[in-house]
Amino acid sequence: MPYNKLNDFEAQIILHKGTEAPFSGLYCNNKEEGIYLCKQCNTPLFHSQSKFDSGTGWPSFDEAIDTNVKSIPDSDGRRVEIVCTQCGGHLGHVFKGEGFTSKMTRHCVNSASLNFIKEA
Ligand SMILES: [Zn+2]
Description:
The chain is mainly β. The protein has a single domain (8-118), classed as Metal Binding Protein, Guanine Nucleotide Exchange Factor, Chain A. The protein is 6% helix and 33% strand. It has one helix at residues 8-14, and strands spanning 34-38, 44-47, 51-52, 60-61, 69-73, 80-84, 90-96, 105-109, 114-118. The strands form two sheets. A six-stranded antiparallel β-sheet has the order 3-4-8-7-6-5, with no helix packed on it. Strands 2-1-9 form a three-stranded antiparallel β-sheet, with no helix packed on it. Strand 6 (80-84) and strand 7 (90-96) form a beta hairpin. The radius of gyration is 13 Å and the shape is globular. Residues 38, 40-41, 43, 84, 86-87, 89 line the site of zinc ion (ZN).
């Protein structure tokens, strides 16, 4: 299946590992029930049940779907980058041990890397 076409802003985030400004993303405060897909290849990445309000300004999830999100060392040598396992598109970063939820994990994701599908 061909990848979805990205606009310039989405390409900057997804292909060139950019970061959208905090509190600017479409899904930052989205509380609807549904599923978040990779914007580039439609792979399901996060359920709304794992989304929590971190106050950081980016959509935050304490669990990814199956093995669809891959962690790799960030080029900054400190953080852990997360990408879509299927297409390698940049999603954001994952942080551990902060205590936001019992899972002790925060996937900090750019809205621009996601598409949201509302569940009926
Ligand atoms: Zn993808």
